[in-house]
Amino acid sequence: MKSKTLLLPLLSLTLFLTCNKSEVIDHQAMEQELLEVHKLARKYHVEKMVNEFVSQLSDKHISVNRGKMSKLQREKKTNQVQQYFDSVEFEKWDDIEPPIIRFSDDYSMAYTIVNKEVVLTYTNENNENIRESTLFSWVAIYTKQNGVWKTDCVASTNQESVTSVIN
What we know:
The protein is about 35% helix and about 45% strand. It is α+β, with helices and mostly antiparallel strands.
């Protein structure tokens, strides 16, 4: 009888510990994964890698910019990014400071806060070559989908751009 009375609490404790055992998450490794996604976004801009850039976006991606919300289908988003990349040359797309990274408690979602300087050139409607320098800040929200971080939403703002005509 004594062994049965000891067995029940032991089984209960084992069940409790097994059910509450959570996966140990390596916070630094998760941060490095998101930093790599962030670095790839820069590469994809500077090297104009449209499909690679769009592949970082979730199927439900939402963009918030200049007071507007945009939820484009992947094909339309790809065309939009292609037109943008075709119309500009990036001189700079660099962080002013390291991104701030935060995770949900279960590490299934994360966000980054980015402060970046973008310098680009383009030809305007008067056929003038323009150099534009802008300071941007944004929040990017990520979800982990099949082991890969995907950008679900970006809410962006920028300071006034400085533009000049160049030869």
